[in-house]
Amino acid sequence: MDTMIRTAMAAAALTMVPTLALLPAGAQAQEVAAAPPSLAFKPANIARVKQLIASDPEARTRWNALRKTADRALSSPPRGDREIDSALEALALAFRVTGQAKYAQGARTILLQRAARTDWLTDAPLARRDPPWKSDLGMGYAAASTGIAYDAVRDTLSQADRQTIVQGLIRGAILPIMDDWIDGAKRIHALDTMGHNWWAHIVFGAGVAALAVRPDDPRGLEWARRIDEASVEWFEFPGTRIGTKPPTFGRDGAYSETVSYAELALHSLMLFRRSWTEAMGTAPSPIKGLDKIAGYFLATSYPRSEGWVSLNFGDSRPPSCGCHTLADLWALGDHNPEYLKYIAGFSGVPAKDAWKDATNLPYFPDAPARASASSSIGASRTYVSRDQGLLTMRSDWSPDATLLGVKSGFTWNHNHADAGSFILYHKGHTLIADSGHSGYSTPEYDGYYRQSEAHNVVTIDGHAEPASDLYDGSASMGTIDHVLDTPNIRYAWADATGPTSRYFQRNYRNILWVGDTILLVDDLRSRDAGQFEWLLHHGGTATRKGRTVEIRDGDAGVDVTPLFPAALPDGGLPTDYPYALRLVSHEGLADEDPKIKQAYLGFQPVGKSDREKFLVALQPRSEGKPASRIERIEGTNWIGVRITGIDRITEVYFNLLADGRLRHRNANATMAGIDTDAYILAVSHPMRS
């Protein structure tokens, strides 16, 4: 962080650079010929747009939509800052493509109106903080769009107009952002405290604006260089144990604040890097690990016939995606057809259609490139981020396949108290679900959606993670590792002990995928004896049939069968089976609508204890195909399950002595005729004829 801290001298030096001054009233500006645009709408990019419009029907359709946005801005002034941002970029593109002065004049009018604002802050309460914040997310958007539009029409403006707009942009956005976030003399934010999506979006918006004002103010280049330098520090921030904050990114490209906030932060970074490359003709500073971000977005996606979704752990929503970030990578020359397939998968949600943005039309892939995206995804079926505690396992990459997502990482900010939680998608439906979230200002957001009870975890007396972690951060992260990926058996181990250590001494979730069956084996030890409960939040409807809970949504379904510590009773009354597992129902809340009640389930063993083992089988159902037969098996010092498929039998054994209860002695048990101290033993063989 040295370069972030030792900036006072640099800030002082910058203040000695003379600034442009507005001309006195009535004075005549000396007109100076302006260079052509150097950012998104530079001549080479516009030449390609014109070629695409002439030869590519889909590109022409997208151009027509953007021109309509520009025409609408001329006939009806845009309302609201985000609408103004879109209008500015559409007007700038329309002018460069058509050459019609009305579009340049429309952009000029909006630019002058925005420049005349006394304050560009859009979130007024921030100004009342101590110390006052002078910049916010809205300013990041405004800085970038204003800079891009100004660059595009600059050569049509009088010298006086240029001075007015540049002065307004510097005063209204660049300097407040540099002061708040970058320059040491006035900086109030640090990577330790605000170095997440806000930092990236706001700072890199100022970076685009700084590149745009370079021809008019020599400070623009220095500001852009400082932001380029800071981008490396932001991306590679290693976290702080003192401040209880995780690394911004894992070594595998996974982001610390879920998919939607990864997109906000990374698109802002990549737009700045694009603008740098366009303006400077050279690459910005190299960032270690930046080449991994696409893999993170792909791994957290679920292809559906009706449109892709992403894992919605934390505050992310299912339609969230990294579409704009992958479009940025494409624009920078990384022409991986999987990016196009991914972007197309989410394009049914208008806000996620990256190619509808005016700044992306110059990089719109041509017809042969789009055709290449029809091939299947070549990524692995299993993805694990050890640094962020995230796992995905899928049957394959075809639409509506089966996907299991598991989260066991860090709790703070946009991450919920969900260490060890899981989601299951099958046949295009979310069958085992995350409860989602509500508006951040609602009492239910903190009161329910972010709490452990709203997730598929195990609780003891209703507790898992302390609520204080949501603000303070979990001092010890959860982890996911020990991944095994073979054609017949896949395995991963999620350790949720750290975030739940107030109540648990041992909170391990073992995940085994065997054929058509997913096993969850929870190895638990609580600090005090209490009532354990295995929580199950579901989509669709859930119906108990015998010893199984059948979850159904349309033609999709999953059977959930608890095997240990006991099975559900096959019939009769609870009083007839005093030692059987109990199925209980709780009242939760619907995703994004706390006014609607949403039931969820729990498996409760009888009585209180301080040590427990849950073994639960999940079997996604496919029409016309019988599920494998599962049998509960147990012996001396072990429990297990036998899975009988069409042509293969697999037995999975869990060694009860290997759960930490023995010290200074071997934890040997005889399982499948093998004397071993293995924690888990799986034996698989073909069906005997």
Automatic annotation (TrEMBL):
<feature type="signal peptide">
    <location>
        <begin position="1"/>
        <end position="29"/>
    </location>
</feature>
<dbReference type="GO" id="GO:0016829">
    <property type="term" value="F:lyase activity"/>
</dbReference>
<dbReference type="Pfam" id="PF07940">
    <property type="entry name" value="Hepar_II_III_C"/>
</dbReference>
<dbReference type="InterPro" id="IPR008929">
    <property type="entry name" value="Chondroitin_lyas"/>
</dbReference>
<protein>
    <recommendedName>
        <fullName>Heparinase II/III-like C-terminal domain-containing protein</fullName>
    </recommendedName>
</protein>
<dbReference type="InterPro" id="IPR012480">
    <property type="entry name" value="Hepar_II_III_C"/>
</dbReference>
<keyword id="KW-0732">Signal</keyword>
<dbReference type="GO" id="GO:0042597">
    <property type="term" value="C:periplasmic space"/>
</dbReference>
<feature type="domain" description="Heparinase II/III-like C-terminal">
    <location>
        <begin position="413"/>
        <end position="541"/>
    </location>
</feature>
<keyword id="KW-0456">Lyase</keyword>
<keyword id="KW-0574">Periplasm</keyword>
